């Protein structure tokens, strides 16, 4: 058995869980000196100084998050609360913010620039923070920079603990493993202070930094462009040694996958790596390390990390083909991005071109720029709910163009109200950090803002923020809008439900005049109870994803209108609200959505972003590609996903990878933005429900996240199987 096979077996078995422990409930930083940020940093220091250590058999990349929140009833060590942080807010802190409690709030979704810690080393970050602290006049910013120092000194001590532990293990170990443990000890001792000298040290420091950010955020801090920031170190070790380290790194990225989440069925990790594309100066970014990560993914065959493949016209054709080979083999954790198009749309919206070329991804495949921007998120507009709003405001007897205008007006109103509310929250935080707390207090007391809008001020992120450009220099936390590129993203969501409902109304109400609009609305309000013939007429109306202009052209008009409305607005800092087309959580978001006029009942699942509604794609994948490609690619900047399902048998011939690569290439050539595939046989999915033990390695992609199919709740499994209806 190879090292990779052994470590994969241990990863699937959860061998690392033996080191996990529940954080003692008595731990507290409440009575320690300093402000909120300093006390949070001291709370994190308690974790790093006391976290149980774990170095698994044959591991070369070491370090695990082992302290989790306490659940009094837990017996299995996987059943732990993801949030673990000693209390650090005082009663006076909460009183400052009207009694609100943001102690454990985190948005996560961040993608730091881990290359920053590789370039500076921990001591370099500490020196930068101390130098900036000397120049600051603001007590709040001085305290925050002191928190950076406290936190990174604790991270350094944590790494040194691993150095000592590896040395202790080496004393009782013989043979080749003794040498490996001594090397781990030497590596950890060096990177606890200084920048890495070779690929081994770079991989290890990156891994510790990513774990530290996860400890601070609890979850969902993404890895960024790993084949770019690690590549300068790649040639310092032989290629076969570098490949082994990449295999080990991918397996470490699976460490948190089993932590319980009722909705995900486990899979609390769901973190993202970005491969390929172009460099900030516009050159082909595919390199030997890019292929090493693809090779490692083929050997580890796990649903995490997610792999986002930036496909650019400058990339060698082999890159797309190698990615496609993984997809058709059933590694359903890859997504494909039209790199030329996304860079063009971001730069057209005003993002500096060098930064736009350096984009990566957050948790749900939303574009961000590691270490420079955090687009997620200033809000969303729900096209399904806006359609119901338009129906309530439209009297019977009108024509379709007037109804369409009313629908667009409802969308515009929703966007205006959502962005206005977001802008008020951002302004309140910015004013507070600038030394004007009265604005937040006045807005909260008037009811314009909830006191919970102050949560970012109560849960700063000194570790993560230090890995973003400019935060240390300005003394500004990410939660205080410290990104150097301050643009935000606003989502157009629930769009297929909205546009299918629009098509059904156009066909059955306005053209065929089978029943008045008010009757359809009343049927939706009653969840179609006693109205099955009406519901069937709505459901059998033309549907999105079949290259039918009857549906697609109004959809194009509505989606482009929504994106254009978003782009009209600015943040309090004068930055942009960027448009993203995105609908995750098909089951979860469907639970809360009322019945809708395409014939969908209340609580039923909704489609993923631009994917056809389950059971309605009747003209095949190429028709779905053509529908999605009708949307102007310049109208969206930070997301656009078409997820499709394919029968694995279609690609079983020797040319399967080339066939799939050509499908992606053709889609991008007509303006498609992003594709997330699932290549699997539906018979295997059904068999897995009956005999889960026989299908432990069956991987599926639900939206921007993937999972082992058998770990998912039954309702999520059923929704996924329904995606194959009519294929």
Characterization of the model:
The protein has 727 residues and is α/β, with parallel strands linked by helices. 48% of the residues lie in helices and 8% in strands. The strands form five sheets. It has a five-stranded mixed beta sheet. Strand 11 (642-646), helix 26 (656-669) and strand 12 (674-679) form a beta-alpha-beta unit. Helix 1 (3-13) runs parallel beside helix 9 (239-252) and helix 4 (114-135) crosses helix 5. The longest helix is centred in the middle third of the chain and has 34 residues, at 400-433. The model is unreliable at 72-78 and 262-267 (pLDDT under 50).
Task: Present the secondary structure layout.
Layout: H1 3-13, E1 21-22, H2 36-50, E2 67-68, H3 91-96, H4 114-135, H5 139-171, H6 175-191, H7 199-217, H8 226-229, H9 239-252, E3 272-276, H10 288-300, E4 306-311, H11 317-328, E5 334-338, H12 339-349, H13 353-356, E6 360-361, E7 367-368, E8 379-382, H14 383-393, H15 400-433, H16 438-446, H17 455-458, H18 462-465, H19 471-474, E9 488-493, H20 495-511, H21 517-525, H22 532-539, H23 549-567, E10 577-581, H24 586-591, H25 621-629, E11 642-646, H26 656-669, E12 674-679, H27 682-690, E13 699-701, E14 706-708, H28 714-722
Helix pairs in contact: 1-9, 2-5, 4-5, 4-7, 5-6, 6-7, 7-9, 9-10, 10-11, 11-26, 14-15, 14-20, 15-16, 15-23, 20-23
